[in-house]
Specification:
Blueprint lengths: L2 E7 L6 E6 L3 E4 L5 E5 L5 E9 L7 E13 L1 H15 L24 H23 L5 E10 L4 E10 L3 H7 L7 E8 L9 E5 L2 H17 L7 H10 L13 E5 L4 E8 L3 E4 L2 E6 L5 E2 L13 E2 L1
Parallel strand pairs: 12-16
Antiparallel strand pairs: 1-2, 1-10, 2-11, 3-4, 5-6, 6-7, 7-8, 8-9, 11-12, 12-13, 13-14, 14-15
Amino acid sequence: MTSVVVWLNEEDNSSNLWATADSRITHQNAQGSIARSLEIFPKIYELELKIALDPIRIQYKTAHSLGMAIAGNVLLSMAVKNTAEYLFKHLSLVDSSTPIVESINLKQKLPPIRHVIYLINNIAKQVMYSHVKNTGNRKEKFEVCIFGYCPIEQNYQAHNIVCQTLPNDLYNEKEEEFECFENFIEEKIFDLDSAELQYILLGDKKDNIVKLIEEEVEAKKISNQSIYRAPMRIMQKIVDEEEYMSTIGSYAQHAIADQSFVRVGGGVTPTTGLSFFGYRLGEIDENGNVTTPLMGQCFIAPFAMCF
């Protein structure tokens, strides 16, 4: 499966959402045990909201972006992710009969996050319905989390869409209905005035990871240190196998959502080196120096780095 944590970071008198995920894909083998499929697979993405600037919809401008994280069945969650990415890159204003002036505040014309969630949840339902109808209700689950700043409601939010198949007896009762599966949304509206660490989890081993995060937070409080990197530190420990979990591991992936955009960044750990989008970019030596390969006069540079 995987693990993703999204939390409010209020270090240095600033507030934004951070997210961290692993990059491992696993499956159940013929013997019923967990086996690894892939070690390089990104779980966090930037969902761009692009608006047409002209009536014939040739030019589009990115007005805002949100974070999107996936967990569970890769095929199903990626079907939702790919469809949502394409749709939200083709927004058009209701009053789009005249060209948009560049100085217009496009953010104020965007849909609130709740409308974004409504559409993506509809995509998720269609994907899950297709799955159960084509596989005879084969047991599966996936999660798609949308997180970031809502310029309409002016707050940070995270919404985790969960779809999973029903037990066969319940499925048989609802087989003729569109929603012949379980679907719900976990919502987190982040409180900027709270002194507690606020986060939302998706993926595997949630109880284990909650316990590890809470222990890390308590340790930081006792030593009078900042608690706001506890989720990232725990995920880094897991992928470095200090806190080994079979379904979670390989590389750490990070993202930061501010009031303008989401930036998917790279991560550095002693074991995995420098990784970006689930790919190992370079090595790190005992002094903390990172080396990355050149391609002609260029190199790949993450938007941000988390250590």
